[in-house]
Design goal:
By secondary structure, the chain is α+β, with helices and mostly antiparallel strands. The chain has 2 domains: 2-156, Zincin-like, CATH 3.30.2010.10; 177-210, no CATH class. It is built from 6 helices and 7 strands, in the order H-E-E-E-H-H-E-E-H-H-E-E-H. It has helices at 10-30, 80-99, 110-118, 147-156, 171-179, 204-210; strands at residues 38-41, 49-57, 64-70, 121-124, 139-142, 182-185, 192-195. A 3-stranded mixed beta sheet has the order 1-3-2. A two-stranded antiparallel sheet has the order 4-5. A two-stranded antiparallel sheet has the order 6-7. A hairpin with a 6-residue loop joins strand 2 and strand 3. Helix 1 crosses helix 2 (80-99), helix 1 (10-30) crosses helix 4 (147-156) and helix 2 packs across helix 3. The radius of gyration is 24 Å and the shape is elongated. The model has no long low-confidence stretch (mean pLDDT 88).
Amino acid sequence: MQGMRNTNRITEREYQAFQDAYSFFNAKLFGNSLPDLLVTLQRHAGAKGYFAPERFTGRMGNMTAHELALNPDVFTGRSDELILSTLVHEMVHVWQETHGTPPRRCYHDREWAAKMKGIGLQPSTTGEPGGKETGQSVTHYILPDGQFGRAYAELAATGFRLNWQSVPFNAGERKKKTASKTKYTCPTCGTNAWAKPQARIICGACYEDNGEVTFLEP
């Protein structure tokens, strides 16, 4: 397993960790029934991860491969167990694609939800008890003493660990960038425009309609 490897090459080390985790959970939770695929790190707003069937094609030969992506922006503050539960969440989508009835894109249906519960992850739209199990946007929480929890404990006992996460976005920088553009609205017709603070903007619509010079207000 990854914890037994000795390498300072961080790309190899981290991606190998996710490959090792995928292979481990494939064996423990899916009976080695899932296909090989590409695990990637992708920043995707509003998602901890996603599954995209046949996202890659071979450059030499007639081959295709699925993509399983994890969002490193949400690693910060989450344990390895929680991060890998997202990996397994997406692996259930792989299972449904290859062994079940794939739903429409990104939808979480009853077949998917039943498989999730069967391996120890409870689907929930809120991430808490009581949330809906199906829908377009569904997360999960780990069931106590479920198959996933026991499998993760076995993996962690090998010395497995993840090593990298995204640097948290600077909230002050976000605020500064937001403040660099101010919304202005015409008090007469409601036309909107965005410009730097303290800008003087004349409403072209009002001037064209009645010749009046009306300044937009922030």
